[in-house]
Amino acid sequence: DDKVSGFGMAIRDFTSQRLYVEDGLGAGVRVAASPEQASYLRSVMRMADGASLLVFNGRDGEWRARLRHEGKRGAVLDIEALARAQEAGPDLWYVFAPLKRARLDYMVQKAVELGVSRLVPVLTQHTVAERINLERMRANVIEAAEQCGVLRIPDIAEPAKLEACLTVWPEGRHLVFCDEGADGHDPVARLASLGPGPMAVLIGPEGGFSEAERKAIARKPFALSLSLGPRIMRADTAAVAALALVNATLGDWR
């Protein structure tokens, strides 16, 4: 059984190998590992036939499974018992201007760890990296979830221009606009004024938002301009700071 830490959070099993699969999960189900997964489990991790591991798909919770070798290179997973029920998590979007490759990888991984439910890449006037490899982004999402015990796999939206994204913004979803020019007084109190509900955090590109973009965002009735303090942060650092603030004030850290 999971133990509970002093922070009220179940201590998760980080000693077992975790694997994300697309298939539905349930007791008695047999899941075929992809060739890449089979190679990883058998050749890289050197897991023996009959070894135990944890499997999840982002929908059905986390399950204890048994690895079965098939032939010289294949593998299947026999699903045995539910280890952890599916977690809902906060309804929190992360809206961001894509960064260069390594920093984008880092930013996506941290967003997953911090519990976002949807990743929304937007193109701004100062966006440097306009070519976005969605397959690579998806791979980073899955890797972060596998390594950190996360059960939910965030959706990834198709890239869109910032203006287009704001034009079709869903009713009832607050947008926390991280703006270095905003009033820096008590960001926690400003966030708390929004109250509960669907939320999104918007982080700009390495060169910041243009003045026209800042004004356009600030005019939106669903947007709240928020300063992250007196220091100028890199975009990937700002993402971690903003998502942590939102989680602590309105999300599942309360």
Topology summary:
Layout: E1 18-20, E2 30-32, H1 35-44, E3 52-56, E4 62-70, E5 74-84, E6 92-96, H2 101-113, E7 118-123, H3 134-148, E8 155-156, E9 160-161, H4 162-167, E10 174-178, H5 187-192, E11 199-203, H6 211-218, E12 223-226, H7 235-249
Parallel strand pairs: 1-3, 6-7, 6-11, 7-8, 7-9, 10-11, 10-12
Antiparallel strand pairs: 2-5, 3-4, 4-5
Keywords for this entry:
254 residues, alpha/beta, 7-stranded parallel β-sheet, 5-stranded mixed β-sheet, 12 strands, 29% helix, disordered N terminus
Q: What is the helix tally?
A: 7
- Distance separating the two termini: 25 Å
Approximate strand percentage: 15-25%
Shape: elongated
Secondary structure: helix percent? 25-40%
Low-confidence stretches are 1-10
Structural class: alpha/beta
Summarize the helix and strand pattern as letters. EEHEEEEHEHEEHEHEHEH
Rg, Cα atoms, Å: 20 Å
**How does the major sheet shape up?**
7 strands, parallel
Overview of the molecule:
- The protein contains 7 helices and 12 strands.
- 29% of the residues lie in helices and 24% in strands.
- The strands form 2 sheets. Strands 6, 7, 8, 9, 10, 11 and 12 form a 7-stranded parallel beta sheet that branches.
- The longest helix has 15 residues, at 134-148.
Write a short abstract of this structure.
This protein is an alpha/beta fold and 254 residues long.
